[in-house]
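User:
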Amino acid sequence: MNKDFTPSFGARYMEAPLPTDKLPETGIEPKAAYQLIHEKLATQGNPNLNMASFVTTVMDEECDKLIAENLGVNYIDTEVYRANLDIQNRCVAILGDICNAPNPEKLWGTQCVGSSEALILALLTHKRRWVEKRKAEGKPYDNPNIVMGNDVHLTWVKASIYLDVEQRIIPLHPERFTITADEVVNRVDENTVCVVGVLGTSYTFDYDPISDINSALVDYKSRTGIDIPLHVDGASGAFIAPFLNPEIEWDFRLEQVRTINISGHKYGLVYPGIGWALWRDEDDIPKSLVTETNVLGFVEKSFSLNFSRGGAMILAQYYNFLRLGREGYTKIQHTMRENARYLAKQIDAIGAFDVLNNAEFTPSCICKLKDESKFNAADLVATIAEKGWIVPAFSLPANADHVNVMRMNVKETFSREMADMLVNDIKYALEKLDKTHSKPYHNVDSRHVK
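Assistant: Predicted structure:
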C-alpha cells in the first residue's frame, strides 16, 4: 500500500510494540504518530475529575491559539523577543500591585517554571545577603538556618538541602495545622536567613498567621537589632486572598515581607508551568548572583536556575490579566470557593466525616473519617477511583501524623452538579466498604500532591 494512503490504524505500531528504549530505524506518518500517542494518553486520569491537584487544566480557545503561536519562542533571547520581555515586566508590575508593593520603582520580579524555582531563587538571595553581611562584619557564616513549619511544601525541604541551609522545622499540633508567631521567634537567631510563612499550606490549605509573624519579627528586630526577612509562599492563596479577602494583610504591606512566590499555574488560571518570584526591593538581590553572557550576540544578564525557557505561558498570564481583570478573577475565585463550600457542607451532612477545612479561604475541602476501624481514607479514595475520581488520602506531618485526611481541590471546571456527583459516589463507596470490609486494606500514604 502507498504509504501516503496508509490509514492511522493501519500503521505498523498497531500490531507491534511502540519503541520504549531504542530509536526506530524509520519513521511513520504524522497522523499515525499522533494517534498512537493520543490513544496511550487516553488510559490516564481525567483532569476534570482530578481533585488532587489545583493546577489549571483549561483556558480560553483564544489563549490556546496564542500559546500555540508562540511555543517556539525562547524567552531568554530578549534582544530578539523584546515584546515577550516587555509583557513579562508588565506581569511583574501587575503582580506587585496585587501584592501591594510600596514602591513600584524598586520592585523586581521574574517568571519561573513554577513556584519551586521561585522559592529557590528567593532563598538563594536571602542566604547570599546573609553570607555577605556576615563576611563584612567578620563573623562566621558557615551555619545558616531557615525557620518554617512542617506545613510547607516539599520543595522547601529540597531547597534547604540543595543550598545547605539548616532547617528549623516547627511541628504541627494534633488540633492546629499552622505555625504560630511565638514558635517562630523561639527558633530564630543571628544565623536565620529568613522565615517562611505559607498562604495556604500544602496539607490543609490553612493560612499561617503571617501578620502576627511579621509583628513578632519587627519586635525581635527592635529588641536585638537582628533584621530577619519574612518570605511568603503564596502557594494556593496569593491569587485568592487579594480578590476574596483583601482585608487579610499577608503581603508587602507588612514590614518584614521581602520576597513572595506565586503560582501562576494554580489559581492564576494559567497552564503549567508558570510561577513568579517577587522582591520588595531589587537591591535585595546580591549583584554576585547576577551573571552575564554575550553568546546570543548581546550582553544578557540572568538570574535564574536555567537559561533557555519557553515564553508562551508568560503571554498566557498576561492574557488572563487582560481578559479577566480584577472583576473576572474575583468572580471565578468566588464561584470556585462557593462550590467548595457547598461540597464541604454536603460531605459534612453525610455524618461520617470531620471536616477540617470547609473552604474558609481557598476553594478546597479537607476531611477525615470519624471511624477508621473497618476501612480508612485510602480504602475510600480507592473505591471512588472506580468512578474516575482522583482524590488523595494522606497522613499529616509529624505530631499530627495519626490524622488521615482526604483533600479535594475545586477548580473552575468543577460545577455544582459535579459536587453532587462526587458526594453521591462517596456515599456509595461508604455503603460498599461497610459491607465488604472488616478492617482497613490499603495503607494511607504520608505523601501529598500540590
